[in-house]
Write a structure and sequence with these properties.
alpha/beta, 26% strand, 239 residues, 8 helices, four-stranded mixed beta sheet, seven-stranded mixed beta sheet
């Protein structure tokens, strides 16, 4: 009975295509990349079993952790720390007329980000790291699964670092309606000194990482001092 219940749960989350790879992955005790067509999504997505991908799917798609009331439909959304693209997909489905820029530095996550968002014409993936200045960075694995990568500045690094200001210039964006940020502690550097682009952001949705870098929350709250804030799960909202 317990096995049947688990199979039904997997089917409800990921459809019929999810049952075999998830069961096989559990038996082999190693990750398997699978393409599934969850009932909640209009297009298939690729996920890796026995990784954070399944948890992120539940948080973003099933539990809608980025859902909040908006006065106006957003036109521009930046998804910084896009991982494999699930938040970008959530935004694309909810706001089909919005233009979404999805930024992810880590190469395997970015590969899946491209694959998962290719059917959504309003999502533009960019392999880069959000940073307070234009330079280059390396991606460091903190050994905390496939969403636990941190960036470190290195002028000879493998990944370009991009600022919010440059993003706005490159895409001729006067204002960001939603800035979603999950950048594993780099928010400390990005928000240092209260950057001038903050006045051009409508709603900030951010996961804070004081456990990785002390002072992240203080830096962000200082920069957003004149904004209303609230929490939903691990996400802090500022409007």
């Amino acid at each position: 009975m317990q096995s049947i219940k688990k199979i039904r749960t997997v089917y409800h989350r990921f459809g019929i295509r999810g049952i075999v790879p998830i069961t096989l992955s559990k038996f082999l005790r190693k990750p398997i990349e699978m393409e599934v067509h969850p009932p909640r999504l209009p297009h298939p997505v690729r996920l890796r079993t026995r990784t954070s991908d399944l948890r992120v799917y539940d948080e973003v798609i099933t539990n809608r952790q980025y859902e909040c009331d908006l006065q106006n439909e957003p036109e521009i959304i930046i998804d910084a720390g896009a991982n494999i693209g699930l938040a970008s997909i959530y935004f694309a489905i909810r706001f089909p007329d919005a233009h979404i820029v999805a930024i992810e530095p880590e190469k395997e996550n970015f590969r899946l980000l491209q694959e998962n968002t290719k059917s959504y014409k309003n999502i533009r993936p960019i392999q880069a790291a959000l940073w307070p200045r234009e330079t280059r960075v390396d991606v460091r694995d903190r050994c905390l699964d496939l969403w636990g990568f941190q960036t470190e500045e290195n002028s000879l690094g493998t990944i370009p670092a991009i600022t919010v200001s440059k993003l706005l210039r490159q895409h001729s964006i006067p204002r960001v309606d939603i800035l979603k940020m999950d950048i594993e502690g780099a928010e400390y550097e990005v928000f240092a000194g209260v950057p001038d682009w903050i006045s051009r952001v409508g709603i900030l949705m951010i996961e804070l990482h004081d456990q990785f870098k002390a002072g992240c929350s203080e830096m962000v709250y200082t920069a957003m001092a004149n904004r209303k804030s609230w929490r939903k799960g691990e996400i802090t909202f500022f409007s």
